[in-house]
Amino acid sequence: MSMLSDILNFNETFVEEKQYEKYETTKFPDKKIVILTCMDARLTELLPKAMNLKNGDAKIIKSAGAIVNHPFGGITRSIVISLYELQAEEVYIIGHHDCGMSSIDTTQLMDKMVERGIDKNHFHTLKYSGIDMEEWLRGFNDVTESVKSSVNAVKNHPLIDRRVPIHGLVIDPQTGKLDTIVNGYDCLKK
């Protein structure tokens, strides 16, 4: 059986038995927070548990490395919508130790694309169109600095209300321990 078949078979039972009922909530986050974190599979259940969050408490946005790499990309748009349309009042940007984005070799990544059938000429076309693949795929060397950079990108965005606290944290993917990198409340006092 394929993975999709397994998922769909489980889902049929899930719906028939009304197992969804214990997850019912609204589209508005009960704790009025939006979280940007990494897509790392270790954080799927660990991060909400480490933050005492249950279903419906927060808007959670996931991306590789929890990096805000474009001021008008999908991540920033999601944060803006969460704040103005979905009643979130605080932003948490949470990176993690041992992140795969800290060891990305863009040249090797592009080689893997070619090995899987991507035409190498596409890279030249993208470069000609103004897309620097090295920059677009780039990770980071230090998770603390990456979190600070993403916090600053959100905090200084022209569409973000200056009264919104933008917090930066780093989580240990083994223990769930959270370290504060930027306390958004302190930044509001300045």
Can you walk through the features of this model?
The protein is of the alpha/beta class. It folds into 2 domains: 125 residues, 3-Layer(aba) Sandwich (Beta-carbonic Anhydrase, Chain A), CATH 3.40.1050.10; 34 residues, no CATH class. Helices cover 39% and strands 16% of the residues. The protein has a 5-stranded mixed beta sheet with strand order 2-1-3-4-5, sandwiched between helices. A hairpin with a 6-residue loop joins strand 4 and strand 5. The longest helix has 14 residues. The mean pLDDT is 95.
Q: In what order do the strands lie side by side in the largest sheet?
A: 2-1-3-4-5
Would you give the CATH topology of the largest domain? Beta-carbonic Anhydrase, Chain A
Name the overall outline. Answer: globular
Per DSSP E runs of 2 or more residues, the count of β-strands stands at 5
Helix content: 25-40%
CATH superfamily annotation of the largest domain: Carbonic anhydrase
Tell me the name of the CATH class of the largest domain: Alpha Beta
What CATH architecture of the largest domain do you see? 3-Layer(aba) Sandwich
Strand content: 15-25%
Gyration radius, in Å: 19 Å
Instruction: Calculate the mean pLDDT score and round it.
Output: 95
